[in-house]
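FORM 7B - TANDEM STRUCTURE REPORT

SECTION 1: FIRST PROTEIN
SEQUENCE AND TOKENS:
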Amino acid sequence: MRRLSLSVMMLIIMTMMALVAPVSAQDQSIVDIAVGNEDFSTLVAAIQNADPAVLETLSGEGPFTVFAPTNDAFNNLLASLEMSAEDLLAQTDLLTTVLLYHVVDGAVLAEDVIGLDGQSAPTLLEGASIGIEVVDGGVVLNGIVNVIQTDIIASNGVIHVIDEVLLPQSVLDSLGAMDSMEEDDMMMAEDYVNIRVAHFSPDTPAVDIYVNGEAAITELSYPNVTDFVTLPAGTYELAVAPAGTSIEDAAIGPAEFDLPADAYITVAAVGSLEAGTLTVSVIVEDFSELAADTAHVVVVHAIEGAPAVDVLAGGQAIVSDLAFPGTFVTASGAPNDGAFELDVPSGSYDLSVVASPDNSVQILDLSGTVLEAGSYYLVAAVGTPDAPEVALTVIDAMTAADLSAALEDGGMMMEDDSMDSMDMGTIVDIASADENFSTLVSAVVAADLAETLSGEGPFTVFAPTNDAFDAAFAALGITAEDLLADTDTLTNILLYHVVSGEVLAADVVGLTSATTVQGSDITISVVDGNVFLNDTVQVIMTDIIASNGVIHVIDGVLLPPAEE
């Protein structure tokens, strides 16, 4: 480790002291400090255009405490009032009233402000006080304005920086606002719902989804699940019709659905078009923040005609009596009617779906299922009793946080009343969002294949996990860096994992080989219900649906004949 010179060490110490000590310019007045800071240029202009008494007061002996809005704070106010800066600066009386409402008599430092939690402080605007609250260690004024920097010491008082402009009630009344700004902020988290749509009917062709009479999702095919979008909460008329037809040809609906506020809802089409049992199953999910090293799993039974099932982990039931929607009835209701959710420790699981109650008939083998910490999984058993399969959707912690934020501020809203943006991410998007494919993603980028695998497709990708790559590196006596540096070999290997077209698990088990984009064939065999590629590489998870194809997860790296 290189030694630091004494001068560098002193600089670091001085910098640290500056970070923890109050900012001080005790030979400058409050106005002088504001004039010298470009981030207060709008505030300074407001002071200069207000009644001259404001400038005289803030340059006087004091002491005063000023809650100083930044330029961004003023820009937010101007946008909400649909007013230009010139319009605001021309209103001398309004500026004077607003500015005096930002000034408290006396020097009130941050530690004193915190001591006023739940109280109010009288301002220089006669009869008007500022409400003070301490929320999560931060100071909030009038319930909505945050103090973002404290204790800028001046010769005649102290400045605290705030992120919005404070408006006294008299100004709100004169603008006709009547507290509407605060009420809107409080209502935002209650006025929106996150919704996505799933196509889980195996004999139903691609469909169009109609919302309030308009085609909002088109060409949604089995077994795809759209992304979430945010809608105003309320009652919606939904209908499902074969793609390319009209709402008059709807197989489901039109019917009204209540979408409650502050909820995450998956609307799934289940059943059979041919049998006339096509219907909608509404699944309400939970995207609350997870504990450390925990994953959230929603298990859905969408196989019509299959019995109620148990989900086993290492032979132990973690879900019991999960039934197809509308078929599980007990005296206490239907707790497992269609979907079940639970939090589990992250890690690798040997899961299986078996017919309950005796668990003697295995419906799906999900050995080697990897559940990442902080991720939210929708695991749907789909298909038919004779050809069951899994449709898997994964949402990482960052995306879940974005969804939560969308409920608070109406973000991620549909534009132009269209849900076209609800398509799944591409193969590359899905792999990039899963840490278990980080080596694969690095390889795709190094081989300059990211654009290709983000293209229209469709493609089928047999995706090795990080563990699969590690085992291959050990067996070949090379490092990851060695392989990533050899782009020709890397490209050859990666293309050997890609098959043109969308080949779902139900199709894979009926094949003996598949020709890859690299040009060589992969052999396919089914042993004890498990699928193996080239005799030794096992498919451990199937049918991760992307907008441009499908991913099947494998436990080894496939080497084309030229690389063996």
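SECTION 2: SECOND PROTEIN
SEQUENCE AND TOKENS:
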Amino acid sequence: MSGKKKKPGIGGQKSESTPLEMAPAVLFTAIVIVFVRMYRYTRNMKQFYWGAGQNNLIDFFSHYKVVFIVISAILALLVLLYRSVSGRFTIKRSVFYYPIVLYGILVTLSFVFSQYKEFAWHGWNERFEGTYVLLCYMLMLFYIINFVKSERNVKQIIYPVAVISAVLSLIGISQYLDHDFFKTIPGQYLITPNTMWRPIRDAAARGELQFNFTLQHHEIYQTVYHSNYVSFYLTLLIPLFILLFITEKKPVKKCLWGTLFAFLLVNLIGSSSAGGFLGMFAAVIIAVILLNKRLIKWWKSVAILLGITALVALCTGKTWFPEISKTFEMALPETEAGETAYFDYIVTEKNTIHMSYAGSIMNVTVHSIDDSSSRLEVTDSEGKTIELEYQGVQEPGTGRSYGAYLFSDPRFSGIKLIPAVGEGSDAFKSYIIVDIESDTPSNAITNWPFAITKNGVFYENQTGALVPLKKIPHIGWKKNPQFGTGRGYIWSRSLPLLRDTIFLGHGADTFTLYFPHNDYVGQEISNWPRNTFVDKPHDLYLGVFINTGGLSLVCLLAIFLIYIVQSFTLYRCEKYEEFCPVAGAGIFIGICGFLAAAITNDSSVSVMPLFYGLLGTGIAINMMVKAKNQRGNA
């Protein structure tokens, strides 16, 4: 038969990856996110003054995801080894490998020099995003770039992602409607060993839940632990499925893509996370810039999507409107902290408590007279003695009375110093309790217990640990620490930590070990419960900088920036007549939305496999689109 050979389309290489070779990529990208299973483990938490002292811990949402991340990486290594030995593996040429390898080296070095190697290797409790997990991310990114070679390979990743996201969306909708599958007996059986089945039945007989994962009423958390992560990964998927819907010609498939979009949108809104809205806003801006006039050409499909969006927004208004209102309210600056808070700072130094109360400095020094008694001396910033008056005080609402030192000085009229002794095993421990009349709406009395020891005076926190207090460095958000549901406070205390991790970090997932948990005054100022535990920075970029170092963040940003520039250049002139360019542009827009949402969200084993899987797929598609364009111009 004569005639010219047909030019291959996008991804029309003779050597495409087999389904078996694609299995590690599919497991990593699409399947890992599903796993939920009870896991018991032990960590030495009693070594930390801010910990609850509980060494026996339980996880449901992270450990088994990590197990299958590692399995996917091992399978990928076996495929790479087999293909290399058989001489049938050729590495695609790509600039991405340089930052990938350098990032892996910096992650490893951060572990090698980490002070907390156990946590740096395995990751923090209920997160488990340790050193080997980050290395698995990079391995799988490399693997997917090299093994996605054709349109069929692209579909072998995207279609399973679509199916899994549909299943997760149905779980999320059930949670939104207060019919959470994980609240049912079969649901709890599924995610626990059979040794827990009897307690589950007994709890159900009492009308209770053995395990309740919901933080708020009707909260959507799917299988990713927290609603924030739901909105986070949905910013990655929604743009992809929108473009597939718009360009689909077959009515049945178009209907399926449209239905999936509606499901995902309900979950995005039902997650009640402003970070997701931020990511989608960024994605829309990028889409308008990239697609511009094509949106007019696609006006019918765009109109259908807008109609679905309006209908879903109307039905879920009670969820998204309060969230948006709260976000704008928290973004507004409040009054200076010192004008409304009881304390500006508290510092303990030997036997003295240094305090600044509404801008006025007071120093309380405990002088020991003998083993059973002590004397208080109070001075101001100039060293002048502040007179105290010992009086009996009746506690409001209880009828109980106690002795307290009161101030006649108007600067400190809201403060009482109460001598006390411990109870039970601490019966012989002496205390000085600082009582402050709070400016909070409840007008509560706030107690600050300071234990008097031979080694000095220490604040006793809610776990019973004796903690020295100091001034905590902070940058920004002084007037609105509640910005972003407390993110302003967390970020302001995290930024000063960056000076120590410019080159190498403290180790993967060790952020919480360096966060100033003894900032009890800052917590009070921010209206947080005292002794609040912070285990993540609520910002992916801050987390990378602190955990694995500023240079490692530069490497990741290099990967992202190269991909963004490359994708924008390719897709701004694309005709979108084939599946791969459509999928590539959708992934690109989703990646942009995800990276914007990452400003308010953390890296997590629940969402990062999907991110790196689609990023690798997007890079591979770009290579195919570029090759097609070069053939067309030849």
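SECTION 3: OBSERVATIONS ON SECOND PROTEIN
Residues 1-8, 335-341, 440-444 have pLDDT under 50 and may be disordered.
The longest helix spans residues 151-176.

SECTION 4: SIGNATURE
Preparer initials: ____
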